[in-house]
Specification:
Blueprint (H helix, E strand, L loop, with lengths): L8 H8 L1 H22 L7 H4 L2 H18 L10 H17 L6 H29 L2 H31 L14 H24 L8 H10 L3 H12 L4 H31 L9 H24 L3 H8 L1 H18 L12 H21 L7 H8 L1 H20 L6 H17 L15
Length: 441
């Protein structure tokens, strides 16, 4: 296999810039969709099942898009960039439509469209790093993505607060109507999503398969839906051993993150702002403040993104991940004990460390053991360990909040914190030293 040459800082910058827009979409979704659901009449115990669209679309879309993009090559568009573009167009449309939902069912349907569309762009971006960067630069590549994820999420999470407090947009509205501050945040997000992904498309190139004739022959031999399904299923049951080791860590990490995303608004509104009335100004103020809290953890993520590789070089990637997850877990648990809104920002620093590591370390560990010809597919399969815990969370958290937590959703955040600590402790099982493909049968 031909050795990949090292890329310059600006080349890595350009190939990662699209993640700014992708995270605009995810951050607007994470900070505001529960608020939109509740504004449109959703009960607190129904929110997790309404969120089921996010993990299910990832579960279905990412391995399929990864597989198809592995089999794609165009002299002008390359392998991953056609999917960057398609996902950006569809995501921008969904972002424009989401805050104009007239009913709960419409918002739920648009969440399916939005999350599926974001995944069409995002999965090839993860494979893009493995395609273009050699092993020495892969951690830097994922750190650069993490930086843009942090920057995008900081701005996007703050948008409703900014539109309300600096531009005079209303953050309240009649019952069943989404406030203008949220609407215009989504509109701006749609524009940023499309333009930032377009920047990567026009400023980056892709490397053709090292043996194009052999690649064409293999592609011809695997044509057909049945052959594709067979190859996908076969690949799932022959995952690299390191991927299997990372599975448990990812499961508990993403269960925690999903609990945070869907229950922070309700939990903080009830625990700090003393309201469950979605039509009240206090509830909408709580929603704006959650955007500020999410800004803090994403801002910390952007700041520490390039410090994580330095720490990983000293103590190892898995121990770096272990430390960050445990700190983040204690940060989530501490939200239960805080009743001052400004103090809420402190534990989000720990959550930001965990988020930065989650976006960097698992992918860096994994990229070194994946076959180049299946990089997109295995990155898609790796997403299973992100979406399965979210599906589990969607199935059980609403029941727990209703029957065990007595409708006090702050306890869902405590549960998430405990789960993140468990994820950190499980990092000790990861064997990051293996550089060759280890197959589990």
């Amino acid at each position: 296999m031909k050795q990949k040459t090292s890329l310059s800082f600006w080349q890595i910058f350009n190939m990662s810039f699209g993640f700014l827009g992708i995270q605009f979409g995810f951050a607007l979704q994470n900070a505001n969709v529960s608020r939109i659901f509740q504004t449109l009449g959703a009960k607190i115990e129904d929110i997790p099942i309404l969120w089921i669209a996010a993990p299910v679309t990832g579960f279905l879309v990412q391995p399929i898009i990864g597989y198809i993009s592995d089999k794609t090559w165009h002299p002008k568009w390359g392998r991953r960039r056609p999917f960057f573009f398609l996902g950006a167009v569809l995501s921008s449309i969904a972002l424009f439509l989401m805050p104009n939902s007239a009913a709960l069912w419409m918002a739920a349907l648009l969440l399916w469209l939005l999350d599926a569309s974001i995944n069409i762009s995002m999965e090839p971006f993860r494979a893009f790093v493995g395609d273009k960067l050699n092993e020495q630069q892969q951690t830097t590549g994922y750190a650069m993505q993490t930086f843009f994820i942090g920057v995008g999420a900081v701005v996007a999470s703050l948008l409703p607060f900014i539109f309300t407090n600096f531009f005079g947009f209303s953050n309240t509205a009649p019952e069943g109507i989404i406030p203008d501050s949220v609407k215009y945040s989504f509109y701006l997000g749609a524009v940023v999503f499309f333009l930032s992904v377009l920047w990567t498309i026009v400023s980056s190139t892709e490397n053709p398969p090292s043996d194009l004739k052999q690649w064409e022959l293999e592609k011809k031999n695997t044509k057909g839906v049945l052959n594709g399904i067979t190859e996908i299923v076969s690949g799932i049951f022959s995952m690299p051993r390191v991927m299997v080791q990372l599975a448990l860590v990812q499961f508990f990490t993403w269960l925690a993150l999903f609990a945070m995303w869907i229950y922070t608004t309700a939990g903080i509104a009830q625990n700090v702002f003393d309201t469950t009335d979605t039509t009240s100004k206090s509830f909408q103020d709580a929603g704006d403040w959650v955007g500020v809290m999410f800004t803090v953890y994403n801002g910390i993520s952007a700041i520490v993104a390039f410090l994580l590789p330095v720490l990983a070089n000293k103590i190892g990637k898995k121990y770096t991940h272990l430390i960050c997850l445990i700190i983040g877990g204690f940060g989530l648990i501490s939200l239960f004990f805080i009743h001052d809104k400004n103090t809420l920002l402190l534990p989000m620093i720990g959550v930001g460390l965990a988020w930065a590591s989650t976006l960097t370390m698992p992918y860096s560990i994994l990229a070194g053991v994946l076959p180049e010809s299946k990089m997109g597919f295995y990155m898609g399969v790796f997403n299973f360990f992100i979406v399965i815990p979210q599906i589990v969370a969607a199935a059980i958290l609403g029941f727990c909040v209703q029957h065990f937590f007595h409708h006090e959703s702050i306890y869902a955040l405590v549960t998430g914190g405990l789960s993140m600590i468990i994820a950190g402790l499980l990092c000790v099982v990861i064997d990051e030293k293996k550089k060759t493909l280890q197959i589990n049968h």
